[in-house]
Design brief:
heterodimer; A: 210 residues; Alpha-Beta Plaits; four-stranded antiparallel β-sheet; 4 helices; 21% helix; 34% strand; B: 581 residues; Rossmann fold; globular
């Protein structure tokens, strides 16, 4: 039965907003129910996500585009081949609150070339490489620091010395601090590559994807 | 297209069709046929010509659209109404970029669409050749998956994969970019049955222990609701929804894409919630203590501010896409799987019905407290809601309603009583003005001949794609376009009234075409309504006309859409009029 057959009406009626029942609870900005008295947004944390991907054209663009358009905060991204032909490993260091890390993993998993995604435990086997070009005024002192950090001199000349250091992020940060006194001209840093520690698999992969 | 399509079809039926293909383009067409595709929507052009040529002897029908955006929307609506992927075609460059809006629309609403785009020959890719665009790059963020076909031997498989992916798991648009040398090139063998890639593994049924926990919570709830999202329709789970809700007498709210998933005239229906949803749905969604949310992505137009969204509710979230779990609203009980399968699991595991007599009584009371209604003075101009109801009254329940985006869309969805799934076809997530008419064309092709197709449009929305009327006339499609004409981009003007101190910038049209005369110029029938006394007869005449017609309805230009929850607002504090915003 249509309202068309009704007679005159005045439009929408009902109690105004301030006279309506109210729920007692509240959620935070991430949609999580919280104590209404407490502000409880999650703090960002830094973590390493490893993705095992089919080595197809555009896969890196897909991954970086995904992180960009969903505003995931990415600290570093490395990519390289694995022991299996046609498959690469992408290692991402991200800094996000827990819901963001969870979303990043799930969205990554939806990309077709991505075979496996996992977040590595808090203490993965992780390493990165930095190449630094330093003023060559004090070669002996530079050499001493390079040895201290188990680095290697790649190039030395009258004006500059170029060294490489490998290690985890903290070690590299420390080395950079130590070299700073000589005057660092340029830095090239790779970002982190990582594997799960011990016998834990970094990626669970069946025969179809090896 | 083909001179003798019926003969070709008969050929295929008797399995005497050749198993070999000669070119990549043949393989593309064969892959579509293998996937059961019957209709294509597209626009010709240089780089896609080999694929069109391969259609010449085939059985598939092709609707030539006026603009590629129309092709994408028509394919989208075809997918919504039929449940099968809609396929659109375009050439490279501008053809492909014109599809972009339609693909983004399908992506937001998880509609099954396959786009085939021509591309410059592989040797020219990267050289800024004539009509070259990085189509795969452009459409990457707005498709479920896309493929650059670089091998004539594999292109049929790529197309099959695209069709299979569009309809598998969480549905969505896929695209295959087809360089001209690949479609012209020799193909070694015919493609096989369409298959999804090995990395694509959508969940099927939920973990039984999780189902048991969730059903215990639901059974213990005092104020339960079911929030049915578009995934319920996509998964063909409407029967399961209906029997579960009625068996346990749980009130049902839908999202906009799920309109029709549960009959709106059922006593358990609270219709749809969100920005312009019913007051009773928004009260129930705010006060519930347990929400069974199925196949919804908790869009901001539904939730309002998440801080005040169902804040007392334990949320059981059923979805086929793990990434939707706790994306916008935390799920207390996530259940991953196909909506129909999980509904069956839930139904089997439900220990008892919730004791919710008082809650159902409360929901009934809200329906009486906040009836959907509009002021209906006896004097003209005509209220748009009245026109929506007049068309609803004059058409059968299985009528397909499409819409553009704006005020008319809200009036159509508020005042039409939908009782069947796949009868409401609109642009939800993307909010694409101009969706309605090309969607009506796709819906008309998908729907059985004895059903009616009505498109509600606004004057602004209609003007964005009205060239597609030429297609409706050329193809002799029986559909009725109802332009709720207020000579304004009404929703923008409503927001300017509410939030911009009535400063009407670029929202009012000092002049609009006579849409009835425009329709006649296209070769369609044109009608006009300027007063209440014309409504009944014009509605009847327009619906009776066997072909495309346009009804230009001069509505009350002052009418606005209420109830309304302002953007980011509290659903429970929906405004009944502007002074409550």
């Amino acid at each position: 039965m249509s309202r068309n057959q009704d007679t005159r009406r005045d439009g929408l009626e009902g109690p105004p907003p301030e006279e309506r029942q109210r729920p007692v609870g509240r959620r935070n900005g991430q949609g999580i129910r919280v104590d209404p008295e407490v502000e409880a947004d999650h703090e960002p944390r830094r973590t390493t996500i490893s993705a095992y991907v089919a080595d197809e054209p555009g896969v890196l663009a897909s991954v970086s585009g995904l992180f960009h358009r969903r505003q995931f905060n990415i600290e570093s991204l490395t990519v390289g081949p694995t022991q299996n032909d046609g498959y690469s490993r992408i290692t991402l260091v991200v800094e996000e609150p827990d819901p963001g890390i969870d979303q990043a993993k799930k969205q990554l998993r939806k990309l077709l070339p991505v075979v496996h995604v996992r977040e590595l435990d808090a203490d993965p086997v992780a390493c990165e490489l930095v190449i630094l070009k330093i003023d060559g005024d004090e070669p002996d002192k530079v050499q001493a620091i390079t040895e201290m950090y188990n680095g290697e001199t790649l190039d030395a000349g009258p004006e500059t010395i170029t060294v490489q250091i490998t290690g985890d992020e903290g070690k590299i940060d420390d080395a950079l601090d130590a070299y700073a006194q000589f005057g660092i001209r340029e830095i090239a840093r790779t970002g982190q590559a990582a594997l799960a520690r011990g016998a834990t698999e970094t990626a669970r992969v069946d025969e179809t994807h090896t | 297209m083909s001179g003798e399509p019926k003969e070709a079809r008969a050929d295929a039926d008797t399995e005497t069709a050749p198993t070999e293909v000669e070119t990549g383009a043949d393989a593309v067409v064969r892959a579509l046929e293998n996937a059961g595709v019957e209709h294509l929507f597209g626009v010709q052009g240089g780089a896609i010509m080999p694929v069109y040529d391969a259609l010449y002897d085939g059985a598939m029908s092709h609707v030539t659209m006026a603009h590629e955006q129309g092709a994408a929307h028509a394919a989208d609506a075809y997918g919504v109404v039929s449940g099968e992927p809609g396929v659109c075609m375009a050439t490279s460059g501008p053809g492909a970029t014109n599809l972009v809006t339609g693909l983004a629309d399908a992506n937001m609403d998880s509609d099954p669409v396959v786009a085939l785009t021509g591309q410059v020959p592989t040797d020219f890719v990267g050289s800024d050749a004539f009509q070259e665009t990085d189509t795969v790059g452009v459409t990457g963020p707005i498709t479920k998956a896309n493929f650059f076909a670089d091998d004539a031997d594999a292109v049929g498989g790529d197309v099959g994969t695209a069709v299979a992916l569009a309809e598998a798991g969480r549905q969505g648009p896929t695209l295959v970019d087809l360089p001209k040398d690949v479609t012209n090139g020799a193909a070694a063998e015919a493609p096989g049955e369409p298959q999804t890639p090995s990395t694509y593994r959508p969940p099927e049924t939920a973990d039984p222990e999780a189902v048991a926990e969730a059903t215990d919570v639901l059974a213990a709830a005092d104020r339960p609701v079911i929030l049915a999202g578009g995934g319920v329709v996509k998964a063909e789970a409407c029967e399961e929804l209906r029997s579960f809700a009625t068996d346990h007498e749980i009130p049902v709210i839908t999202t906009m894409p799920a309109i029709g998933a549960f009959p709106e005239d059922h006593e358990l229906s609270l219709e749809w919630a969100g920005m312009h949803g019913t007051g009773y749905a928004n009260m129930a969604i705010t006060m519930t203590d347990c929400m069974l949310a199925v196949g919804t992505r908790f869009d901001d137009r539904l939730t309002g501010g998440v801080e005040t969204f169902a804040p007392d509710a334990e949320i059981i979230h059923v979805d086929i896409d793990p990434a939707e779990i706790s994306k916008n609203v935390e799920a207390d009980y996530p259940l991953l799987g196909d909506a129909a399968a999980v509904f069956e699991q839930i139904a089997a595991a439900m220990p008892r019905s919730p004791s919710a007599d008082a809650w159902r009584e409360q929901c009934r009371a809200w329906k009486e407290e906040y009836p959907m209604d509009y002021a209906a003075p006896e004097d003209d101009p005509v209220k748009p809601q009245y026109v929506v109801e007049a068309f609803d009254d004059a058409t059968p329940d299985d009528t397909v309603v499409t819409s553009g985006v704006g005020q008319h869309q809200m009036w159509a969805s508020q005042y039409w009583t939908f009782t069947e799934p796949r009868t409401w076809v609109s642009s939800h997530g993307l909010g694409t003005m101009g969706y309605g008419l090309p969607a009506a064309i796709g819906a008309r092709i998908a729907a059985d001949d004895d059903r009616s197709v009505v498109c509600f449009d606004g004057d602004g929305s209609f003007l964005m794609t009205c060239q597609e009327l030429s297609v409706a006339v050329r193809e002799d499609l029986d559909l009725t376009v109802v332009v709720l004409n207020n000579a304004a981009v009404g929703m923008v003007r409503q927001w300017q009234d509410a939030f911009f101190e009535e400063r009407h910038v670029a929202s009012e049209y000092p002049w609009v075409p006579e849409f009835d005369t425009l329709a006649e110029a296209f070769g369609a029938r044109g009608f006009r309504i300027e007063s209440y006394e014309e409504v009944e007869s014009v509605v009847a005449e327009a619906l009776a006309y066997d072909g495309p017609s346009v009804v230009d309805v001069h509505i009350d230009p002052e009418e606005n859409v209420y109830p309304m929850v302002p953007s980011g607002g509290d659903n429970g504090r929906f405004a009944l009029s502007e002074d409550q915003l």
